[in-house]
Design goal:
The complex is a heterodimer of chains A (about 300) and B (about 180). With about 300 residues, chain A is an alpha/beta fold. Chain A folds into two domains: about 200 residues, Rossmann fold (3-Layer(aba) Sandwich); about 100 residues, Roll (Methionyl-tRNA Fmet Formyltransferase, Chain A, domain 2), CATH 3.10.25.10. Chain A contains eight helices and 17 strands. In chain A, helix 1 links the parallel strand 1 and strand 2. The longest helix of chain A has 25 residues. Chain B is an alpha+beta fold. Chain B has one domain: Peptide deformylase (Peptide Deformylase), CATH 3.90.45. Chain B has a five-stranded antiparallel β-sheet, with helices on both faces. Chain B is globular. The chains are: A alpha/beta (about 300), B alpha+beta (about 180). Chains A and B meet through strand 9, strand 10 and helix 6 of A and strand 3, strand 4 and helix 3 of B.
């Protein structure tokens, strides 16, 4: 079987490693170079390097509506398309090109959280389980029939990196089975129940700002959903304060009495921040704008928040 | 007094006993009760969340389970357990095994399981479990049938673990003096 692969982030190479154990990778389509770091040096997508190392035909940021491009992809004679975080919607002329199917790895249990941020959505919703689906690509986003899916538990303490790692492992456990069923010709696609569909969109920057009027659970879920790279943040003394990790406060560590939303309570080197429902969250790793990420004790020593100060 | 003659220890991958189906328990007698108590303490000492008799090289269809899910703690002795049905979606979870020290991998199994067994008090147990507990129960009942978690691996993941597995097997054969019985 010949696979035409569409993927852009570095982690998609793990799917390539996996797929190449079962089938030939006929070609790789990936996104454009991105600017990175202070020097704004151009960074090539990892799948591009993966392709070059193995002398596999590479299509970087092609115009997928261009007739010439479609023709060159057709010449690869792909049997199967596999799309994993490519970052763009494929036109029909492309996803209908492989002889069998074009399938997509989606990191939720479809029809839940169709869209661009399923992992964040699961954490924001405080879900106890989510999952991985392998679906057929159709014109309607994430609405294709399901070839295979599996549930993945969400630990209440999971932040994005842990949940993402678990979902990746699940996807890689599921993928061989999907490929084998397609190769054996006994793949069964099951339609999604469209009435159950929920949606998630690309994360907008203002979604990362913490709203201290929300409940402690909401604030905590916001922090865990965005942990890892561009984290949830709030203003403190006019500077951005980034929350890398946190936990909900246990009832016996929460102070009595009233305080405003976002109020900071210090307890030795522990910091508690009050949320809209009167409950608290305990940030454990944070970062002050312009500084490096640190344990909260270090941030507290540096900032010395005074009684009555608040995150806003 | 009944015999718990030999000191029990957990056997590792490479030991042929792990591949054999265990004998059914015909009566919950003193031997079985002592075995259960011993297995429970070995499981917690390991530390582990489940232990099946074949893992301590005793061919009895029984296993012990000790799962702590925060609010809920479950400790079970399951004698002659069998899976009546599975339900729910398939779930991927990372599994390890006391007979496979250092080896962890993601396994797909049903998320829920309904079982029947006999308890130490000889009363029948009917249990519907989901999530982590269901996972442990399935893993342990597999042991009683000579099935190991690595039997579920896709070809490529199996290959990835091949070296670690071979190393473990070699160590086990040496440790238990199995050179003479080393099979395939």
């Amino acid at each position: 079987m010949r696979i035409l692969f569409f993927g852009t982030p570095e982690y998609t190479c793990r799917a390539l490693d996996c797929l190449s154990g079962y089938a030939a990778i006929a070609g790789i389509v990936t996104g454009g170079d991105t600017k990175s770091g202070r020097g704004q040096t151009l960074l090539r997508p990892a799948p591009a390097l993966w392709a070059e190392e193995r002398a596999i035909p590479l299509f970087q940021a092609p115009n997928l509506r261009d007739a010439g491009c479609i023709e060159s992809l057709r010449e690869l004679k792909p049997d199967l398309g596999v799309v994993f975080a490519y970052g763009r919607i494929l036109p029909r002329a492309i996803f209908a090109l492989p002889a069998m199917e074009t399938i997509n790895i989606h990191l939720s249990l479809l029809p839940a959280w169709r869209g661009a941020s399923p992992v964040e959505a699961a954490l924001l919703a405080g879900a106890r389980t989510t999952g991985v689906s392998i679906q057929r690509i159709t014109e309607k986003l994430d609405a294709g029939d399901i070839l295979d899916s599996a549930e993945v538990p969400v630990d209440p303490l999971d932040h994005y990196p842990e949940l993402f790692a678990r979902l990746m492992s699940a996807a890689l456990a599921l993928l061989p089975r999907a490929i084998e069923s397609l190769q054996a010709g006994n793949a069964r696609f099951i339609p999604q129940d469209a009435n159950q569909a929920t949606f998630c969109v690309k994360i907008a920057p203002d979604q990362r700002r913490i709203d201290w009027r929300g409940s402690a659970e909401t604030v905590y879920n916001t922090i865990r959903a965005f942990a890892g790279s561009r984290t949830a943040w709030a203003f403190f003394r006019g500077k951005k304060f980034f929350f890398h990790r946190a936990r909900p406060a246990a009832p016996d560590e929460e102070p009595d009495g009233s305080a405003g939303d976002g109020a900071i309570i210090l307890c030795r080197e522990k910091l508690l921040a009050r949320c809209g429902d009167g409950r608290y969250i305990v940030p454990t790793e944070a970062q002050i704008e312009g500084k490096r990420r640190a344990e909260i004790a270090e941030c507290v020593r540096g900032l010395r928040p005074a009684p009555g100060e608040c995150f806003t | 007094m009944p015999r718990v003659s030999k000191k029990l220890s957990i056997i590792h991958y490479g030991h042929p006993s792990l591949l054999r189906a265990a004998k059914p328990v015909s009566a919950v007698d003193q031997e079985i009760r002592e075995l259960a108590v011993e297995m429970i303490s070995m499981m917690y000492a390991a530390p582990g969340v489940g232990l099946a008799a074949p893992q301590v090289n005793v061919s009895r269809h029984m296993c012990v389970i000790g799962v702590d899910e925060g609010r809920e703690k479950t400790e079970l002795v399951l004698i002659n357990p069998k899976i009546v049905s599975v339900f729910g979606l398939e779930m991927v979870m990372e599994e390890g095994c006391l007979s496979f020290p250092g080896i962890h991998t993601h396994i797909i199994r049903p998320s829920g399981v309904e079982i029947e067994a006999i308890g130490l008090d000889e009363k029948p147990i009917k249990l519907r479990a989901e999530g982590f507990l269901a996972r442990v129960i399935q893993h342990e009942i597999d042991h009683l049938n000579g099935v190991l978690f690595i039997d579920y691996l896709a070809e490529q993941e199996r290959q990835r673990l091949e070296n670690s597995l071979e190393r473990l097997k070699g160590k086990t054969i040496k440790k238990f003096g199995l050179a003479s019985v080393a099979q395939k």
